Hints:
nine-stranded mixed sheet; 19% strand; binds iron/sulfur cluster; 2 domains; four-stranded antiparallel sheet
Amino acid sequence: xxxxxxxxxxxxxxxxxxxxxxxxxxxxxxxxxxxxxxxxxxxxxxxxxxxxxxxxxxxxxxxxxxxxxxxxxxxxxxxxxxxxxxxxxxxxxxxxxxxxxxxxxxxxxxxxxxxxxxxxxxxxxxxxxxxxxxxxxxxxxxxxxxxxxxxxxxxxxxxxxxxxxxxxxxxxxxxxxxxxxxxxxxxxxxxxxxxxxxxxxxxxxxxxxxxxxxxxxxxxxxxxxxxxxxxxxxxxxxxxxxxxxxxxxxxxxxxxxxxxxxxxxxxxxxxxxxxxxxxxxxxxxxxxxxxxxxxxxxxxxxxxxxxxxxxxxxxxxxxxxxxxxxxxxxxxxxxxxxxxxxxxxxxxxxxxxxxxxxxxxxxxxxxxxxxxxxxxxxxxxxxxxxxxxxxxxxxxxxxxxxxxxxxxxxxxxxxxxxxxxxxxxxxxxxxxxxxxxxxxxxxxxxxxxxxxxxxxxxxxxxxxxxxxxxxxxxxxxxxxxxxxxxxxxxxxxxxx
Length: 496
Ligand code: SF4
């Protein structure tokens, strides 16, 4: 395949082209694909999930899986629904609903915690929703419950989301007492007029600055600010002022999200779409943000939605660095028991009502060590320019080129000039996003590939018809989806 080749000239398997067009992420299925219309996950019982975790723990004890196990808890409630929100959230009608949500999470802790008895978890992240929307007693009680049943390794990152309208001094004290060492403040914008049009109730520029300054006074606490670029009604001058204000507060880390017109947002439900002109403006503002952050002493990183439920997916939590397992509790979360399975919980319905005050149903897919190997390469190559052979060896105890099902594909990709392999790493050679997308998909295992193709059979047939007549649209959409980044992360330069 040559650079900039037309559709008709592409000498590639149809299924890889289809997957590249349909599954718009650079990680390995099922990561991040759970929102696709035809999910391949099967309904599962809790007993199957528990036995999957037991198997993973055996693999860890035998040195066949990385020891890191990360805990994520999803608190779904918020005081109001922001117009740009696509998260798994609900606005509770009354305290009884909140209490039922809390009981369901505790039941899930009861189900899983015995499996992890005696194990030190590597990190804990509580997101949502808005965890600090819990009142003081409930927050204290819930965090005590979590700590009673799970143990964390010394130095583990204990990380919470919060918002200016919900984080009070007393809640901050509760978080600190329970060992939280990192807190993110979801500010999104400092502009008062914009905040009220976005339905971010209770937040103002003034209380956002005050709430962040309260965090900044705490010694040894890592602080984050979240902003969004591209909000409806956000002019370039508002965004520039937002960046200036955020940088003047000197957070340790900033997450700058690009507004997405996901179907779940109120914006999209009013049939809003981000125009091409607006997209171009967002790209321009991102470059400006890079410049401003660089000048203020921050380095930038990029990432693409990947693992956890929506708003959490672009956090640079330890599991994003490619290691270990994730135990995720609550609606809409995605868990990964390394070498055994991926599973997710039922999503919160569009009505934003929580359907059951019990553990939400599980949907899982089996995931072997072979799938982990493929996932490792696809994940690293998808997110970076290279994948390290040494890291692969230290995780799997074998060189990637000694694994038959990998070496045959990788060596062919090298012959075709798509990648370059040296003794340390495997690098992209091509700059063409379409080639990259298809190369990543061609690393899929027959098991996952066939499962996706049969679940999406009708779409695949439709794609083949259009593809056969040389439809160029898919090429454009693949390139757009793979080359776009969803989030910029800026770290203060003295931070890791
Ligand atoms: S954006 Fe955050 S605070 Fe707003 S509704 Fe969604 S989860 Fe809640």
